[in-house]
Specification:
This protein is mainly beta and 113 residues long. The chain has one domain (25-110). 14% of the residues lie in helices and 36% in strands. It is built from 1 helix and 8 strands. A two-stranded antiparallel ribbon has the order 1-2. Strands 3-8 form a two-stranded antiparallel ribbon. Strands 4-7 form a two-stranded antiparallel ribbon. The chain starts with a helix and ends with a strand.
């Protein structure tokens, strides 16, 4: 009886372990033009999506003219103080615009590495 319960419990826990795995064949790189900025200076972030799979191409959904719905990318700003990371700013996950057009998206196929 105990062995059966342990087996069922292990099966349930093992299924949850693999639930949030990210694809290992896609790499995201976040970059800026400079390494440091002054307070109030405009920062442009560049996101580079790379396919590291050597055999298959993979599709990636890219925003185009999205006006409503959940953002694909949103920003969290942390401050490293006293060897801890303090959350200073969080961007809204949902777009809030007066225009209620669902817009379009682009599908880009990433070539093999």
């Amino acid at each position: 009886m105990k062995a059966t319960m342990i087996l069922i419990l292990c099966t349930i826990l093992c299924n949850r372990v693999y639930a949030d795995l990210k694809p290992q064949y896609i790499r995201f790189t976040l970059s800026t033009e400079q390494e440091s900025y002054y307070e109030g200076e405009k920062i442009t972030f560049n996101i580079t999506i790379t396919n590291t799979d050597k055999e298959n191409t993979h599709p990636v959904l890219l925003p185009h003219t999205q006006n409503v719905g959940q953002k694909l990318f949103y920003l969290n700003v942390y401050d490293k103080a006293n060897n801890t990371m303090l959350l200073r700013y969080t961007e809204e996950r949902m777009l809030k615009m007066m225009v209620h057009d669902t817009g379009t998206v682009n599908i880009k196929y990433l070539e093999t590495a």
